[in-house]
Amino acid sequence: MSDEKSFHMTPDEFRRHGHAVIDWIADYQARIESFPVLSQVKPGEIRAALPVNPPAQGEPFDALLKDVEKLILPGVTHWQSPNFFAYFPCNASGPGILGDLLSSGLGVQGMLWSTSPACTELETHVMDWLVDMLGLPKKFMSSSAGGGVIQDTASSAALCALLAGRERATNYVSNKKGCDGRLVAYASTQTHSSLQKAAMISGIGADNLRLIEVDQNLATRPDVLAKQIDADRRAGLTPFFVCATIGTTSSNAMDPIAAIAEVCHQHKLWLHVDAAMSGTAMLCPEFRHLQNGIELADSYNFNPHKWMFTNFDCNCFWVADRKALIQTLSILPEYLRNQATESGAVIDYRDWHIQLGRRFRSLKLWFVIRHYGIEGLQHHIRQHVQLAQQFAEWVRNDARFELAAPAPLNLVCFRHKAGDAANQTIMDRLNRGGDLFLTHTKLNGKLTLRLSVGQTHTQARHVENAWKRIREEAREFATAG
Amino acid sequence: MSDEKSFHMTPDEFRRHGHAVIDWIADYQARIESFPVLSQVKPGEIRAALPVNPPAQGEPFDALLKDVEKLILPGVTHWQSPNFFAYFPCNASGPGILGDLLSSGLGVQGMLWSTSPACTELETHVMDWLVDMLGLPKKFMSSSAGGGVIQDTASSAALCALLAGRERATNYVSNKKGCDGRLVAYASTQTHSSLQKAAMISGIGADNLRLIEVDQNLATRPDVLAKQIDADRRAGLTPFFVCATIGTTSSNAMDPIAAIAEVCHQHKLWLHVDAAMSGTAMLCPEFRHLQNGIELADSYNFNPHKWMFTNFDCNCFWVADRKALIQTLSILPEYLRNQATESGAVIDYRDWHIQLGRRFRSLKLWFVIRHYGIEGLQHHIRQHVQLAQQFAEWVRNDARFELAAPAPLNLVCFRHKAGDAANQTIMDRLNRGGDLFLTHTKLNGKLTLRLSVGQTHTQARHVENAWKRIREEAREFATAG
Asked: What pLDDT, in 10s, does the model give residues A442-455?
């Protein structure tokens, strides 16, 4: 039965088809500005073009690639277009894509050190590098009592932080006995919705996540936080966890980390700091004042898959006390036991997150850091911030528009003064037009447009064109304003 | 500031470096049998060769690829080697890798339908295809009240199932109010450890996950389950969830789904069925008797990233009642609101799992299904099962060895009769020798070797050689047995 019939792609076929896919992506990058940024298809249109039944026999690879072009591409919203200004960036880059491709090719599982030592050790190494690169406290380094791990998303990292805080507060009992409904966590009205989701998942309950009032800059008010904690304590509840944000999703608001940390310290609460997008800015020393107080945090995370040219998924999560995290998430069935683990000399990252299996994600991060160097990363981050600041300046100088929030980095929240309906119309027309894609939020009850600069290839001409197109679509509202 | 200085890889550079990476992977595939399957490095060895500090300036791409070869490869355990018989397979394939590469190249986020309609619609389509391909009940199709979603791992899927069950049992109140420590879930002593982790994470508590006794085949005993549920009810607790397994991790034991479902139905418990590896076998009608009763399950999952040639991560999770899942996990902040979502005409997969962000994972699954066709997938699954059955036959016919559990599919649990120490020695020598990699478990208190057949390129000669090497390393124990 040796050398039996095979349907597999041979290495030589892989080489040929692989080159074709690489070429397709290179061509896609070169022509990306020719597509409408936001897909213009209607619900059900993509599915309607797909065959109802799965194929009984295999098909040639060329047919697959043709169908990507013909059937899939019209349904793609082009997150990698330099005219993508919506949500947050989820930027990618050549070295990121190729590092991830190598990870697919090696196809290893990094759940235990022993299941692929390089997968664990490169991850630890790169996470230590990033502590230096971002000006984070030494207590997050693997040589201290803390350490870092790559997670999939900030949502998962927030959940892990909440769980570690929950367990520390209950002396690692709620893991075993279940929650008792008396634990209380704190975030702000502007904190990312994943905190609410984490409170739901963890058995804390969404009602036990207090959403603290913010100031005029949309930043958490530490005084209100302190009062709420006192009130909850008096009511016999158990405050245990606070999430502060460096750069909120909605408006890029900056919470005062040091002041919040002081409250947490007083009350012995776990402080998690979420810097999902804006953490990348800390590559540049001139922005690090925005993370003042970070040395007092128990955990911290940012997403290289947002603004640091590393394709999704790649979240970096650090804790100051790795024992608290491991004790929260560790399980060790017999079939995973091995000498390296028993020796205690290695990290087994399966104990650091929700999942068991894990991909070799540090490869792409390593590739990105080495391709750009600190210099290259800093250059492009500064460029993005400069472009956003230029845009904010244009808004400030146009009497029909106003800024809706401070713009400390690369996100500009602005609106036409003619009101919600006008802003909705402007946005819908821009997005239907296809030249660019931007999204909205609500700030102080008013519909607000968001221009988020961070796609890898966004340059001055793209932001200039965005401003031109915005003014064009706003023309009819000019006098009404 | 147009066309400013750039550190980015151009499309042409991407093409050139991309071809080099593809060639590296093709070469890696061609020479993979020349490496020791289990990495032979010592803890710290890989890190010690990496520069202490991150690079200030960027480096040429060729240097990166050279370092993968020189610094990383020695620390890789070769999961894609046809001589990998450890744990479970985590197999990959050409079409899987290239589909994933396209996903990296497109770099879209599929959190909402509108953020890339093709990402959502292809996923729904392929998940519906798989319902047919695996002989699953129609209630899991998107045209019914249920539906499927791609998750990262079976751990996350199990957690989502547990949460949906928790919420249904509490009338969607524990999401808001938190858990009360009275909810009880059920699995068996052989259920995957992720269920324990899910009980910890969800605030249920590990002590409230009852591990039901198994029969001589290591399958859950429905009578013991029913008795335990009765006892818990009498104690004033709230049974709400059962996890049954088609092919346990440790020994590939098959739980009697129909009998367990009957107990669940009587007591109105959520039944989740985990078929992480063995679900792939259901591509072949002759194995579907192993999932008898699946039409009574509330949720079900298997991992194409284990045995179905689709590289990690790719878990397929279905529910019979999608409203229960969505009501459990849904949150909708203003900045994610959009017309398509409000219309109710589309699926927004962010409400179907823990994370918010999501990759275009259906591309690789679509590529795999179309490349192989049902015929090709069936061929290779049957081949793996046949190889494992052949190995089991060799064990049965060798007086020094014995089978430690039934081998219904592609996993053979066996041991040398000379006892635990001998089996440990045999395994350690085999794994140090590098010709193959296998792992162990404990069954009925005895150390047991596991030969898991499922790597994409494993053929008869690899299994033959494994058996030859096992007997060689066992030679000294031959007379002692």
From this structure: 999 999 999 999 99
CATH number at residue A155: 3.40.640.10
Q: Which two tokens stand for residue B82?
A: 């046809």
Q: Answer whether A182's CB lies under 8 Å from A237's CB.
A: yes
Closest-CA distance, A243 to chain B, in angstroms, reads 17
Q: Which of A153, A376, A274, A246 is nearest to B54 (CA)?
A: A376
Whether B311 is in a domain gets the answer yes
Q: So what's the ipTM on this one?
A: 0.96
- B225 with B273, same domain? yes
Is A51 inside any structural domain?
no
Exposed (0-12), middle (13-18) or buried (19+): which is B160, by Cβ within 10 Å? buried
The domain boundary, picked from A301, A336, A359, lies at A359
Q: B341 with B467, same domain?
A: no
Helices (H), A55-145: 61-67, 94-106, 117-133
A350 located within any domain: yes
From B359, B383, B400, the end of a domain falls on: B359
Q: Which residue range forms the structural domain that includes residue B386?
A: 375-477
Could you tell me the two tokens for B403? 């089978």
The whole-number pLDDT of residue A1 equals 40
List chain A residues with CB under 8 Å of B71: 118
Half-sphere exposure of A147 (CA within 13 A, CB side): 22
In a domain, A364, yes or no: no
Tokens of A259: 């002041």
Q: pTM of the prediction?
A: 0.97
Residue A43 sits at the vertex; the CA angle it makes with A421 and A446, to the nearest 5 degrees, is 20
Q: Please name every residue paired with A244 in a beta bridge, in sequence order, or none if there are none.
A: A273
**Which of A6, A173, A341, A371 is the mutation pick for testing B, counting most B CBs within 10 A?**
A371
